[in-house]
Design brief:
The chain is mostly helical and 65 residues long. 69% of the residues lie in helices and 0% in strands. It has three helices and no strands. α1 packs antiparallel against α3 (41-54). It is elongated, with a radius of gyration of 13 Å. The protein starts with a helix and ends in an 11-residue tail after the last helix. 12% of the residues are buried.
Length: 65
């Protein structure tokens, strides 16, 4: 279960990175705060799944390696 939680957590981090890049590449730059907040959802959801699977862990996945 620990390994599955870690994989889900890393997938959330990678998705967050992609969403942040796409937010900064947006030509209109309107609603930038909304884009930044929405970009944080994948890592938060991945972290919540990991907490439910294995218990207490840190938000950044590489701090537990």
């Amino acid at each position: 279960m620990d390994r599955l939680g870690l994989v889900i957590h890393w997938i959330g981090l990678i998705a967050t990175c992609f969403m942040l890049v796409f937010s900064f590449l947006d030509q209109s730059q309107d609603e930038l705060i909304i884009h930044l907040i929405a970009s944080s959802f994948p890592i938060l959801i991945g972290w919540m799944f990991r907490v439910l699977l294995v218990g207490k862990c840190k938000l950044l996945p590489w701090t537990t390696l």
